[in-house]
Amino acid sequence: MTADNIQLDDQGRLKHFLSTEGLSRQLLTEILDYAESFAGVSGRAVKKVPLLRGRTIVNLFFEASTRTRTTFELAAKRLSADVLNLNVDASATSKGESLQDTLHNLEAMHCDMFIVRHNNSGAAHFIARQVAPGVAVINAGDGRHAHPTQAMLDVFTIRRHKPDFESLKVAIVGDIMHSRVARSEIHALKGLGVNDVRVIAPRTLLPAAIETLGVQVHDRLEEGIDGVDVVMMLRLQRERMHGALLPSENEFFNTYGLTEKKLRAAKADAIVMHPGPINRGVEIDSRVADGNRSVILQQVSHGIAIRMAVMAMTMGRKPGGEEAEE
Amino acid sequence: MKLLIKNARLLDPATETDKKGSLAVAKGRIVAMGRKPNDFTPDKEIDAAGRWACPGIIDLGARFREPGLEHKAAIAGEARAAAAGGITTVCYPPDTDPVIDTSAVVELIHRRADASGRIRIHPIAALTRGLAGEYLAEMAELKEAGCVAAGNAGRPIVNTQILRRALEYAASVGLPVFIQPEDSFLRNNGVAHEGAMSTRLGLPPIAETAETVALQQALLLVEQTGVRAHFCRLSTARSAAMIGAAKKSGLPVTADAAVANLFLTDMDIDGYNTDCHLIPPLRGQADRDALLRGVADGTIDAVCSDHQPHDFDAKAAPFSLSEPGASTLEVLLPLMLERVQRKAMTPLQMLRCLTAAPAAVIGLESGTLRKDANADIIIVDPDRSWTVDREAMLSSGRNTPFHGWEMSGRVTHTILGGRLVFEG
């Protein structure tokens, strides 16, 4: 049994959304198409569809995050669900209440879905195994493992600009080692048929055997982004300066930071992406982040459509099916 | 009580015996191996036709959690599980609470073992007080109290000067040292073997060098101090090669591996299987194969259970937050029997690493069926097949990575000091 089977039911439909690994091209495409149908909702005067009316969704965040939590909340509200935000202080669990206890308490309140963010890899899998049948779990980031909705909104954004996945060349740049976004992007891109995916980082920020995920590894930025259609920059956490991973932000910017000059190595129409929040002058120069090749803000707005799609699908709503309900 | 085991296949690695015959036991000792003495009239007879009679297993590392962690397990219960697994003697790592750094703790453990009546426990003294790696433990007193070795119980002594002094002092006290090599800096917060699997699952990795760097350092200090050293729970191919080279150069070293590391790899942690969260971690296929070869050729002297029973909650958590270790007393011998069935080892070779070799590591006279030895004997049906079922385990720790595995071979009788302590 692979790690990801538990997110599919016996019909191969999503019942949880934990990882982009092992999902079929058809299912990944279905998510993107369904998200396309929601992309218009935000532009309407009444920004709501009644798909999840009466359902209760809990944002269960063990790790602080304003942006991800907000977009999930917004997505849930646009689906007409009731939303509960719970920021579980990490110390609450260390005070003797186990993750299981927290969960059982919440379950007793009869919630339909948990959106989980946790700093330990596998936490969302763990919770998905514990919840009652019919309760969905969506992974909003677990440790270094996965951040599947971020990856899906990234490929959604790419598809809008460059719909031919087979011919795409994509470079992912920065702290691959600690990045759940990078892992989920790699699986999503490979699953959608992208053949040429590269990761670019100093060796201190590359996990072992990363090439086994089907990517090519490059030490140098200019060489790695040569001829690519998409450059995905990753956020560099300040704490990476500790533990001898990097000497300084300045040196990182000089070697791996994306500037207009370095971007010339990519294709002329290459797009630049970043999952945010941006460290200007660390992994990316402001002129690139705010320039005409940047699709960073589109990523943010697409995040809502993707999350609406995934929430609806894990709650059993089929694309094109029951939108007319009520 | 006089006991006669007859018609058995007698397997005793210490005397290179593999023949059919009888074992006569009286006053807790073996009085004859092979033929029943003419004047011997047993009170009880066991007909072991079709089965093996071998020395009881000597396990160089098993934790029964007492004192201090009785919510996980206790000596009485684990002794029952050990007996069912054919284990008659265990070495007991010092990371109890309190740590085995005073004779009082040694006495307590001995008392509990005696009360259980099913097991001999040899406590291992802490090398440093509280296992904190700062001050030497009172090793002379601990030896006097009955400790057979001194060790770090998997908690590295970070300061190399203190490590050197601890080894020197142990040498002068005459205690062998048990070292589980780990470099704490290279280990860092790692929980899984560094490789494709840890990368895929996003688990903090443990490099091979977390073990080998510490092993190399310890080997150099062993050479310098002249202490008799036993290296515990080796997990990498490179470690086995390093031990082989050290032995060749004449260093007084021995080594063991935990049974789980011989039968599982890092692939088994897929799906965040916390029952496979072990330290040292399950490593790659090549490492596992090299460990198996090392066990077969004697580079790795002994195989131990590394039994670590846990309560349910300890494993019911995301992988990094779960506690490492597996409950393995009851599968140690059945798993090793698989090596015999696959003809990777002869019965004597396999039994040597569970009996004579570990006995030699801690200087025990037992671990043999020789006349006058302690009558610690097991009878094994090598063909009896059964399925591991965590709910049917005798250990309080149900944390087995082997649930559902088909086993061939099971202990039918365990005799400790001439008394039958398990029959199944």
Structure description:
The complex is a heterodimer of chains A (326) and B (424). Chain A is α/β, with parallel strands linked by helices and 326 residues long. Chain A has helices spanning 25-39, 67-78, 90-94, 99-107, 123-130, 148-161, 180-191, 221-224, 249-256, 260-263, 286-289, 296-314, and strands spanning 56-61, 82-87, 113-118, 136-142, 169-173, 196-200, 216-218, 230-233, 271-273. Helices cover 35% and strands 14% of the residues of chain A. Mean pLDDT of chain A is 91; it is low at 322-326. Chain B contains 14 helices and 18 strands. In chain B, helix 3 links the parallel strand 8 (120-126) and strand 9. The longest helix of chain B is centred in the middle third of the chain and has 17 residues, at 209-225. The mean pLDDT of chain B is 97. The A-B interface holds A 1-3, 6, 21, 98-100, 118, 120-123, 125-126, 142-146, 180, 183, 207-210, 212-213 and B 194-196, 198-205, 207, 270-272, 313, 316-321.
In short, what is this structure?
The complex is a heterodimer of chains A (326) and B (424). With 326 residues, chain A is an alpha/beta fold.
Structural class of chain A: alpha/beta
Rounded to an integer, what's the Rg of chain B over CA atoms? 21 Å
Q: What is the H-and-E element order of chain A?
A: HEHEHHEHEHEHEEHEHHEHH
- Return the average pLDDT of chain A rounded to an integer: 91
E-strand count of chain B: 18
Which stretches of chain A of 5+ consecutive residues score pLDDT under 50? 322-326
* Spatial order of strands in the largest sheet of chain A: 7-6-5-8-9
Q: Evaluate the radius of gyration of chain A.
A: 19 Å
Q: In angstroms, what separates the terminal alpha carbons of chain B?
A: 20 Å
Oligomer: heterodimer
Query: Biggest β-sheet of chain B, characterized?
Result: 8 strands, mixed
Please supply descriptive tags for the structure shown above.
A: alpha/beta; B: 424 residues; eight-stranded mixed sheet; 14 helices; 18 strands; globular
